[in-house]
Amino acid sequence: MANLIIEHNFDPDQFMWLWAKYAFGFNPKQHCTNSIKGKYSRKFSKPNNPHLKSETRIAFDEMSLNCTPILRDRHIALTIHPSSPTIRDNQRD
Predict the structure, then answer these.
(1) Domain count, the chain
(2) Over 80: is that where the pLDDT of 79 sits?
(3) Which residues contact 10 (CB under 8 A, 6 or more apart)?
(4) 48 lies in some domain
(5) Residue 25 within a domain
(6) Residue 60 domain boundaries
(7) pTM (2 decimals)?
(8) 73 burial class (0-12, 13-18, 19+ CB within 10 angstroms)?
(9) What span, in angstroms and rounded, lies between the C-alpha atoms of 62 and 41?
(10) CA–CA distance, 63 with 54 (Å, rounded to integer)
(11) What φ, ψ does residue 42 adopt, rounded to 5°?
């Protein structure tokens, strides 16, 4: 299984919703999170990971990455690229 590792600088307290979902499909009849078919990450989750602010490197290794991790509140879809397996978000700097 390939690993996707992100390095983030998010402060979870600054977001109402902050989570990632392993997406494997889409339902256009639904709205927002309900439209994304998949499982939620427990590692990249404001309500499930109290250490999210201090754990700035997160490995998306909870499921097979035959799906696409999506980060909520940033609306970023991440995919694995062999030449750049680490993604850094600097939009809040």
Answers:
(1) 1
(2) no
(3) 18, 52, 53, 89, 92
(4) yes
(5) yes
(6) 4-88
(7) 0.67
(8) middle
(9) 7
(10) 23
(11) -90, -25
pLDDT-derived band at 76 (thresholds 50, 70, 90) equals: low
For residue 93, tell me if it sits in a domain: no
pLDDT at 88 over 60: no
pLDDT at 52: 93
Residue 62, pLDDT > 60, answer: yes
For every residue of the chain, DSSP letters joined together read ---EEEE----GGG-S--EEEEEEEE-TTS-GGGGEEEEEEEEEETTT-TTTTT--EEEE-SS-SSSEEEEETTTEE----TT--EEE--TT-
Residue 65 lies in a domain: yes
* Distance (Å, whole) CA 16 – CA 46: 9
